[in-house]
Design goal:
Length: 399
């Protein structure tokens, strides 16, 4: 096994890179892959290079996530932007597939610069020490890893598709329960609400305005600051420091927030069309930019949270939102209050919510189990690559 710095076994072609902004890419649509930091981000009408090369992220790539690749073999033609390096291997020394496998198991902590964004400079890239055997052995190692990682990748893909199906099943269970109920023999009637369709004959289809009033509660600074998620509704406690750093900016002055109480419905005006609704379970504080609605009738706000998270509700909410683009769409209370929903009698609401809890818990258990198995497969893949390119396993014996 020999060792050499990457700059001595590859030619860096970064000089040919040209970044294109979104407008430029829209004007140049085509079928040539446009590469960003570690993936194809678009397709354009022209190539900057048309040969087999090795690509490795310059900034923004997942350098410290062992389950994600940072280097790739590209057959060409491609258009690479300024966030990814282009290497032409010296094929007298290094086989490109072997090089990619080696680069995907490197410890990048000693090569990365940048205070706010991980960056692998051209100089640091060239200084990476590559261990390499003979070309024949490199080819054998690459063949072995192609075969073994291909099998693992196939399993990961199947399990990922299974998770997608489970999520679709979970959504379908909730959608059917909150719009049709659980009695398949129930007499149906028209709700006279297009997005809801037929509902059980004993259900109502009230306007939001008959169920809630907009609320403006004085904040209690001792209460936790809650968040609203498009996936999980309203949190039941304050975010940890780590979660807050990633998700929201928390003001130190808690008197700027508004109070909420159990049973309230809270939504983010700017993300309502994405499902940012939630039923409040604990007393707390929320952003003054959120809309808070207090119930004025007896019903389960959680039932309406599930209803408002359905796909058909999302389209209705979008129709009632105002704005010239998705990122500017806002659902104001004066429009939200006119939306009609469907609502069964209170005992049936409780029965439906219990059914949803049971079924979603079962499905989420399967999702969690499948996600753990995917993580184990990815760990196995990373360990296999490291063992093969460092000579810890004899690939010829393992073949």
């Amino acid at each position: 096994m020999k060792t050499a710095n990457l700059r001595w076994m590859t030619q860096n072609l970064d000089r040919i890179r040209i970044p294109l902004n979104g407008t430029e890419r829209d004007e140049r649509k085509g079928d040539v892959p446009y590469w960003g930091a570690n993936r194809i981000v678009d397709y354009v009408d022209e190539a900057l290079i048309d040969e087999r090369v090795v690509l490795i992220g310059e900034d923004g790539a997942p350098f410290f996530e062992r389950d994600k690749d940072v280097a790739f073999v590209s057959e060409g033609p491609i258009w690479p932007n300024n966030h990814i390096h282009i290497l032409r291997p010296d094929r007298r020394m290094i086989e490109d597939r072997y090089l990619v496998y080696f680069l995907n198991q490197v410890d990048y902590s000693k090569y990365i610069n940048g205070s706010t964004r991980d960056k692998l400079t051209q100089f640091q890239l060239g200084s990476i020490a590559i261990d390499f055997p003979s070309l024949d052995d490199q080819s054998d190692i690459a063949d072995y890893l192609d075969r073994e990682t291909g099998q693992i990748d196939g399993l990961v893909e199947k399990k990922t598709r299974f998770i997608a199906l489970l999520k679709e099943k979970r959504a379908a269970v909730i959608d059917h329960a909150v719009t049709k109920g659980m009695d398949p023999s129930a007499e149906m009637k028209s709700s006279r609400v297009e997005w809801i369709g037929d509902i059980p004959a004993h259900w109502d289809a009230p306007r939001i305005a008959t169920l809630f009033r907009e609320a403006f509660r004085k904040p209690d600074p001792d209460l936790p600051v809650l968040s609203v998620s498009i996936h999980n509704g309203v949190s039941d406690g304050e975010l940890s420091d780590e979660e807050r750093d990633r998700k929201v900016a928390l003001s130190e002055d808690r008197t700027k927030y508004q109070g909420v109480e159990p049973g309230d419905l809270v939504y983010n005006m700017m993300r309502a069309w994405q499902g940012a609704f939630g039923a409040v379970a604990v007393s707390g504080l929320v952003s003054p930019a959120y809309v808070v609605a207090r119930p004025i009738a007896e019903f389960r706000t959680k039932f309406l949270e599930h209803l408002l998270h359905t796909k058909s509700a999302a389209e209705e909410i979008r129709r009632y939102s105002r704005g010239i683009a998705d990122f500017r769409m806002r659902l104001y209370w004066e429009y939200f209050r006119d939306i009609r929903v469907c609502l069964p009698p209170l005992p049936e609401q409780d029965e439906i919510l219990s059914h949803i809890d049971r079924e979603t818990a079962r499905i989420e258990g399967l999702i969690e189990k499948t996600e753990r198995s995917i993580a184990l497969l990815k760990e196995k893949r990373a360990a296999l690559i490291t063992a093969a390119v460092t000579g810890k396993i004899d690939v010829r014996a393992a073949a």
